[in-house]
Amino acid sequence: MSFNRRVRAAYEQIDRDSARRLAEAAITLEDQRFRGCVLVHLACLVPGSLVTVQSRLVDIGIDYPGELFWNSTEEARNGILAALGHRDLEALRVSHLLTCLAWIGDATVVDTFATWRASPPPWSAALGVPPHVYALSAGWELTPDGGRRDLCSEAAYRLDPTPSAAASPIVVAAPSTDRSPWLDRPLTILFDLPTALAPLDWLRLDTGRLVICTDDQATCFTFVHSTFDGRWANVDARPDYLGGDESWPALAQATLHLSPHSRSPLSAAWQVCEEGMSQLGGFPTWWSAAAYPTCPGCRRHMRFVGQLETSELLGEPAEGLYYAFVCADCRFAATGYQQT
Predict the structure, then answer these.
(1) CA 252 – CA 262 distance, rounded (Å)
(2) Which of 150, 180, 196 is the last residue of a domain?
(3) Is the pLDDT of residue 315 over 60?
(4) 268 and 289 housed in the same domain
(5) Mean pLDDT over residues 188-196, rounded?
């Protein structure tokens, strides 16, 4: 087992009470980098382990990454709102605080985001996007009527190349008989899944199977939409730069194994380890900004299905993740890609 997997396994085996004691000790550390490492691992791998220290994190100015405040306490939320009321905040600090609020995501935060959408606060002028758009960083969106619509599931299951007795085999990156309309290359079936799988329950799919196809080169530059039967949806504009490099490495079909046991939905959210990020459900690993595709039917953001590490599809060390999304109502799927 690699060092990263040993680290992950060590945290995942800590009981919540022990994890909370570790969090209490961690915030007293003078080594800020080590302190941050411990806190992020606890936040992502042992949900609920930071509830006793979250308000103190606000007091001492620790507001990054926002995952530290997932499902946080009322006291911490009020502290963050109070901090946003201070004058002369730098834009980066405001951005961090908004991300923290997004990860808290309770009714007060949702109402506050709706208020700011209707009447933007003065400090929002320095931001790249309106304050309510920060909800996407925490896997939800503000609806037109001011409610919360989740884009991610709290049920997460690892996809692992190593089989175990109870794991279900999942074939990924299978070749399609269809070809890309943009490039002279076959399409790839990124996922072909029975909709009865536990990680898909929350989507309430009624199709029996979910087949998500993509052009694995084109989706590195744009979202590629398909229908639930694995067909090109023909709703996307060809990106300005696509290239026609025949040496582009094709994804290799692989069999991954769906763990029978769920794990923390944040297990892959903040790159707490450099491997083990292929999963169904949970929250995506974003190498840059959160990027949920828009459904070509209803124009809402599409919901996250799962992600695949490039290294598991190319059979060699490689960076990058392929993402899969769906709109259950309109029966569109989409794929995207990010790398460091």
Answers:
(1) 27
(2) 150
(3) no
(4) yes
(5) 94
The pair of structure tokens assigned to 79 is 């502290």
Pairing outcome for strands 148-150 and 140-142: antiparallel
Q: State whether 300 and 197 are in the same domain.
A: yes
| Contact (Cβ atoms closer than 8 angstroms) between residue 178 and residue 213 | yes
Q: Between the CA of residue 169 and those of 13, 160, 210, 338, what are the distances in Å?
A: 25, 9, 15, 25
123 with 248, same domain: the answer is no
DSSP state of 229: B
* Number of domains within the chain: 2
Give yes or no: residues 171 and 313 share one domain: yes
Q: How far apart are CA 298 and CA 295, in angstroms?
A: 6
Band (pLDDT 50/70/90 cuts) for residue 314 is low
* DSSP reduced 3-state for 335: strand
In terms of domains, do 145 and 162 share one?
no
- The pTM score is 0.93
Q: Which tokens sit at 314? A: 């190319």
Are 306 and 199 a contacting pair, CB within 8 Å? yes
189: Cβ–Cβ under 8 A, 6 or more apart, which residues?
173, 174, 175, 176, 211, 212, 213, 230
